[in-house]
């Protein structure tokens, strides 16, 4: 993988993805071999929206690589509350860190940040846009359970506002995968995302009923209905709770079906699914450590190579 930043899953080729996932497997097999590999470097965690898994796993991944981490703390106590622009904020933070992870409520925020700094930027979610590092750990989870070719994947729930969905759907086009999208009509994939998928020649179908496709699936990727993204709360209440699964729902599924969820869940997956062999979402969350270690290791390695090249000129 030869990238300076990770902003969107669409920038990743199959070779890029496999390079990171191969390294993630190496990390998982022998994490000690990667300890202190980037000692003396600092990662800035710039989170303008709430986060548990992404923020903590990046923090843990960086420290396992020997890096220090710094954070903005609560946005309301930062200079953002005084009206500082995102471009000014990241240009200042660039002087304090060797790489940054950015989560922001506005689509395109990570792209803007990458245009203003020279250190690696990882998009940790930009509104309803993209979340590519989540996609890498999703792909790692799928690969460890099924491989990444000759698969049928169902993605269910909030497909309109779900940035994890947009990233995963784009990345899966690099592999031999049939994609099925299950959602209410009001939460279908955005037209722009559907267009981009069709342009790649992706094999995809849309459904409103999980039963139409459940028996054919190798992977079911469930997402919550994202209340915070809805401009109209009444629209949210019309669809909230409409797409839920429990252990009984999965009676007609393949024995090998893997159920995934980027978390947090609300009520879309009942707790009784946790006790089935299908449940993989906690394993999926834990995969954030080796995958984000592999990603940071790769980006820092690339940045260090660029510095050496500049020094030789």
TrEMBL record:
E.C. number: 2.1.3.2
Key word Glycoprotein present: no
UniProt binding sites for L-aspartate: 82, 163, 224
Molecular function terms, GO-annotated: aspartate carbamoyltransferase activity
Keyword check for Calcium: no
Domain named Aspartate/ornithine carbamoyltransferase carbamoyl-P binding: residues: 5-144
Catalytic activity as recorded in UniProt: carbamoyl phosphate + L-aspartate = N-carbamoyl-L-aspartate + phosphate + H(+)
Positions that bind carbamoyl phosphate: 53-54, 103, 131, 134, 263-264
Enzyme class: transferase
HAMAP family: Asp_carb_tr
Family matches, as NCBIfam families: asp_carb_tr (TIGR00670), PRK00856.1 (NF002032)
Protein's name according to its UniProt entry: Aspartate carbamoyltransferase
């Amino acid at each position: 993988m030869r990238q300076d930043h990770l902003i969107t899953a669409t920038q990743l080729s199959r070779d890029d993805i496999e390079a990171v996932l191969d390294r993630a497997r190496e990390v998982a097999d022998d994490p000690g071999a990667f300890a202190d590999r980037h000692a003396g470097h600092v990662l800035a965690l710039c989170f303008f929206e709430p986060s548990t898994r992404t923020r903590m796993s990046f923090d843990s991944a960086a420290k396992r690589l020997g890096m220090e981490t710094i954070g903005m703390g609560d946005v309301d106590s930062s200079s953002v509350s005084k009206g500082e622009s995102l471009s000014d904020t990241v240009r200042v933070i660039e002087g304090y860190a060797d790489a940054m992870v950015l989560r922001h409520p506005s689509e395109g925020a990570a792209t803007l940040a990458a245009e203003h700094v020279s250190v690696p930027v990882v998009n940790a979610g930009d509104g309803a846009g993209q979340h590519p590092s989540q996609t890498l750990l999703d792909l790692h989870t799928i690969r460890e359970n099924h491989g990444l070719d000759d698969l049928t994947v169902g993605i269910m729930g909030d497909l309109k506002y779900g940035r994890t969905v947009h990233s995963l759907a784009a990345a899966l086009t690099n592999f031999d995968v049939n994609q099925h999208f299950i959602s209410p009509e009001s939460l279908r994939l955005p037209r722009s995302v559907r267009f981009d998928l069709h342009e790649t020649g992706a094999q995809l179908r849309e459904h409103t009923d999980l039963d139409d496709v459940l028996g054919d699936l190798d992977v079911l990727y469930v997402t919550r209905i994202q209340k915070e993204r809805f401009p109209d709360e009444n629209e949210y209440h019309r669809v909230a709770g409409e797409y839920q699964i429990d252990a009984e729902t999965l009676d007609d599924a393949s024995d090998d079906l893997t159920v995934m969820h980027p978390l947090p869940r609300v009520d879309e997956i009942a707790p009784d699914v946790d006790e089935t062999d299908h449940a993989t979402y906690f394993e999926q969350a834990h995969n954030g450590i080796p995958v984000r270690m592999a990603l940071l290791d790769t980006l820092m390695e690339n940045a260090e190579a660029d510095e050496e090249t500049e020094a030789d000129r």
